[in-house]
Amino acid sequence: MNKLEMTEKIMVAKAEKQLTWEKMGKALGCSHVWLTSVCLGMNSAPKDTAFSLTEYLGLEDDVAHALMVYPTKVWDQAVPTDPLIYRLYEVVGVYGETLKEVIQEKFGDGIMSAIDFSMDVDKIEDPKGDRVLLTLNGKFLPYKSW
Amino acid sequence: MNKLEMTEKIMVAKAEKQLTWEKMGKALGCSHVWLTSVCLGMNSAPKDTAFSLTEYLGLEDDVAHALMVYPTKVWDQAVPTDPLIYRLYEVVGVYGETLKEVIQEKFGDGIMSAIDFSMDVDKIEDPKGDRVLLTLNGKFLPYKSW
Amino acid sequence: MNKLEMTEKIMVAKAEKQLTWEKMGKALGCSHVWLTSVCLGMNSAPKDTAFSLTEYLGLEDDVAHALMVYPTKVWDQAVPTDPLIYRLYEVVGVYGETLKEVIQEKFGDGIMSAIDFSMDVDKIEDPKGDRVLLTLNGKFLPYKSW
Amino acid sequence: MNKLEMTEKIMVAKAEKQLTWEKMGKALGCSHVWLTSVCLGMNSAPKDTAFSLTEYLGLEDDVAHALMVYPTKVWDQAVPTDPLIYRLYEVVGVYGETLKEVIQEKFGDGIMSAIDFSMDVDKIEDPKGDRVLLTLNGKFLPYKSW
Amino acid sequence: MNKLEMTEKIMVAKAEKQLTWEKMGKALGCSHVWLTSVCLGMNSAPKDTAFSLTEYLGLEDDVAHALMVYPTKVWDQAVPTDPLIYRLYEVVGVYGETLKEVIQEKFGDGIMSAIDFSMDVDKIEDPKGDRVLLTLNGKFLPYKSW
Amino acid sequence: MNKLEMTEKIMVAKAEKQLTWEKMGKALGCSHVWLTSVCLGMNSAPKDTAFSLTEYLGLEDDVAHALMVYPTKVWDQAVPTDPLIYRLYEVVGVYGETLKEVIQEKFGDGIMSAIDFSMDVDKIEDPKGDRVLLTLNGKFLPYKSW
Amino acid sequence: MNKLEMTEKIMVAKAEKQLTWEKMGKALGCSHVWLTSVCLGMNSAPKDTAFSLTEYLGLEDDVAHALMVYPTKVWDQAVPTDPLIYRLYEVVGVYGETLKEVIQEKFGDGIMSAIDFSMDVDKIEDPKGDRVLLTLNGKFLPYKSW
Amino acid sequence: MNKLEMTEKIMVAKAEKQLTWEKMGKALGCSHVWLTSVCLGMNSAPKDTAFSLTEYLGLEDDVAHALMVYPTKVWDQAVPTDPLIYRLYEVVGVYGETLKEVIQEKFGDGIMSAIDFSMDVDKIEDPKGDRVLLTLNGKFLPYKSW
Amino acid sequence: MNKLEMTEKIMVAKAEKQLTWEKMGKALGCSHVWLTSVCLGMNSAPKDTAFSLTEYLGLEDDVAHALMVYPTKVWDQAVPTDPLIYRLYEVVGVYGETLKEVIQEKFGDGIMSAIDFSMDVDKIEDPKGDRVLLTLNGKFLPYKSW
Amino acid sequence: MNKLEMTEKIMVAKAEKQLTWEKMGKALGCSHVWLTSVCLGMNSAPKDTAFSLTEYLGLEDDVAHALMVYPTKVWDQAVPTDPLIYRLYEVVGVYGETLKEVIQEKFGDGIMSAIDFSMDVDKIEDPKGDRVLLTLNGKFLPYKSW
């Protein structure tokens, strides 16, 4: 079973059981953002999480095995078109140099890891329009001299 | 005076006075991330902030006028090359579909605004290696049906 | 049922019943432009509209569910080739800087939303050749300083 | 004098006289959107308008001659980056197929001209946030069979 | 029946009846160049021509309906690879600026329409090597000032 | 003197003498379309023509030498943006396959040369709008088998 | 039968009969390089060669008809990736300007035809490592002035 | 002195002395094709050749030093536009797979080197039109298994 | 059997037998890195290795034949997206010019062959985090003058 | 002083003193590969190294300050053209998937860091042709689940 079929199976089971990613994350004791990325095939799950999830959703072992496979991460277009994803791309374009200035001033020459990394999404209710709060948390990696 | 010359002038003054973006932000009562983006020419400053900044740095009025100009936001390459900025681009590629799933589950069909938007950078000290905490805060905009 | 199959079913029913988008919009009490975008899979329909439409066209519930799904908006080519669509792209290329000048002079630094947005198409009869009148109506979003 | 120098001269004169595109358009009896595109070098001006404008702004004849030159219309990037212009590009991407459906249903097989074409921008005041009203008006050109 | 299947059916019938585009154009009283573009799915046929053609070729009504559909004109590559088509692309690259100079000198600021447009291909016999004569005939559209 | 400076000199002389390409072509006994391409630096001139032209325009010998240089033909963008040139590109996209069908039916497997090639532009006056007549004349080159 | 199926059939027959391109070329009295290009679908074969080949390989007439079809020559990537083909592309990049200098010095302004063209491949045995000898032979086509 | 200035100096001296690449190659006892690539900055010259050339052309030592610099080989466009160079690119596109088939049949799995490589250009006089003979000679490099 | 099916068969057998690339390389007496590239279809295997491998894995002869086929090496994207592969691409971008400087200083003008080439991967255990040791070993090929 | 001017100054001093990167690395007690990347502006130097280097080369303090600046790492082309650098890019293309398989089999799901990273170049003398030995050493970073 490949990652595409795995995602399909999970999506159908999630819809039938009327679950949300948030409920699933809580039930399995992990971040619902990370869990979503695993179910969409962009991260691999440790064995425990993989089998807990398939048990929770009533899916066969093949799905668990597919969840454990290390994915090849591919995206289609250098410039994404979907407006929600484009806005994130635009933030990188508009604020990339700014973040470089500010992070390197605080930490020295180096980068924020996208591997030793976690992310969260929260909803802030606001009478003028609810707000999305996105939190990225990555280890700082200093450039090495050798 | 165009934005490039403005940035140059500010950078020199900042270096001579041994300031940091953080100190400058505190002195002017605004976010240092936003202030950096203004000084790099990716946002315009309101009149008050523009003149407070040039006074604080001892720069002439021309710089204040350049700070107030509405910028045309341009970046050079569809795929950024600098490693710090690329990691952010990679996060959009790897987690873009995940964020779409999670945000639209919590808020409905729509996007997180990159205009009615703010951003912050914090340093979390950690004996295993300090961490960068990036916070993005954008208004949710629901798609309209009409 | 995915969006492609949904569009196919609607197109066949529309052709069999010899309907136009305009008649369908009027019957459902909504803009025919918006309705077209929903049926082509570029917008999601609220539950009511989705079921009114499938009832009106005599289609099964699966189509209504597909209409309610939040779409991922994707287009194939950075530069469109079909002449009707290219002319619109050309207008953005030729008049993009002009619109930036004029809108920001009238509203300040910010953008016209493509999300809190509606659009209309009218026919102006003219003996020298009928004219297409396209109306775009989007909320102005000012850039935030923070 | 080339178009770039021409635009520079006009921008300086406009700023010194504290004019707006709207005032300039009214004074010359033409659309301020079209006039902006002429001054940015994306359209040529008829002789009368060119000299009326330089007289009005107190500029030399060279500027008038540059205004009359037929421009080569060039834009830099297949996908624009400035957020205001990108949103227009996004509208073409998201609604291009929709507009093709609706226009060709109303007019037959053909296109909306981007040459025999005019455009307007209006501000609609609204307590929930002002709105931008963009009006595109182009002659319908039917495909010819021969 | 989509345009691809339509083209296939016509090609098979044309081969079986050992017709040429030229004979077919004469039989139907229209340009064989235009007819070819219709049969390749790049133009729509008026109802009369569509049914005359299917009758002439002994094809069912589905083909006629497919011929009447307004096509979405798509080509695959910004730079064509087939040598015959590339040479035409090269002519546009090498002589584009020249044609702009010459056409706008004769007609004023504007373009040659590719919509209100016809085209012909002739063979000029020549002992030193036959020559292809391509004739493009398009309405001049002046830029509008407004 | 490079080709850019050569073009500049010729353009200035042509404007001062209020000449047209057509007049210049007639005076020199050659096609005005070809002459334009030579003056824009996209073709080289034979020695005679080069010196006749500089004499006619009252320009120094350096210009004649620059006219004789074999040019490197470069154009900037895979997809041209200027509307006049884009329409020609569109004709290649829309009708490329059609021309391949028709030419190869008439001539066999091969191409129309863009080197052993000439081109003409005529104005057809028409009360419904003047028309541009473009004539391309290229030697047919059959593919060789060996 | 399309060119892809044709190539497949020929490849299978060639492998079963343990033939080489060289043997096949000799048997048919033509260049084995040209014959390979025909069998890969990049050139068409004259009727005689097409039927000689299918007879020689024991293949049905459909294959001969497919060999006679005038191909549309398409390649996938602007920059080829396979190392053997990339090296040829690199030669064009590194030595393109050099060849232009040398050829135009010897022949005048013009090009080497890729249509009236043949090519050969030889093996030069050498104790320090065998060498590939590639010979390209194309008619010189002078640019025409008109 | 960089490679661009070096090329300029050599071109001027070559023109003044009315030399050809062929004469220069003979005088220096090396291939005129290779010498041209050295003078255009696409190869480095050994010390002897570099100084022989500058002596022969009457140029200063700086030019010799620039000739000896190992160049960074860069070309501008994935798809070349100049017709002479494009035809070579087209040959790679049309015949790349053919050459792979033929070379690997004769030599085994491997490539023709573009580094341990030489090239020649000859003129074959022919009453039906002279022909360009291009000879590429590269060492065969077998893929290694390890 | 094509290379894709071959890879699939090998992957299934490898998983069922719970082998690693390292164990397979040792068993066959060859580098496990090279063996992996062969099994992924990016290199061909000599006859002996091919049959040893299929015997070892209990696979049919078709797989051995597929292993012996000379592959066409293709990769999809100019800029790879998977983070592990992107980091390697980034190393080429960041250190490419550096490696050119250092290698050409040590060896003269030339390149490191990617054909007469081998590669190894080792794990260096380290309490602060294990390290990947990648060793590339390629023959130096000097540019030839001729 | 920007990085370009810094590189220029260092290159001139290095040439005048007839140094090599290797000698410079030894003198300063650091890797000559890393030092080269610092001098080419692709890495920043710690204060000590920066001043040791300028003292060693007899350069002013401005160069030391430029060496300490955190660089923005930019490279021009998605696919490099210089043959030495292209071969490295080709290795990533041909062996990228192989390295992913082998590294992830040995280390688990994760990547080799290009930041906590070092690199070395050695010359292996060999009568059949010297060999380049490239060693890449990067920390393994496991993907985090959270």
TrEMBL record, chains A, B, C, D, E, F, G, H, I, J:
This is Cyanate hydratase. Its EC number is 4.2.1.104. Catalyzes the reaction of cyanate with bicarbonate to produce ammonia and carbon dioxide. It catalyses: cyanate + hydrogencarbonate + 3 H(+) = NH4(+) + 2 CO2. InterPro entries: Cyanase, Cyanate_lyase_C, Cyanate_lyase_C_sf, CYNS_N, Lambda_DNA-bd_dom_sf. It holds the Pfam family Cyanate_lyase. The active site is at R87, E90, S113. Belongs to the cyanase family. Keywords: Lyase. Residues 74-146 form the Cyanate lyase C-terminal domain. The keyword Lyase applies. It comes from Litoribacillus peritrichatus. The keyword Lyase applies.
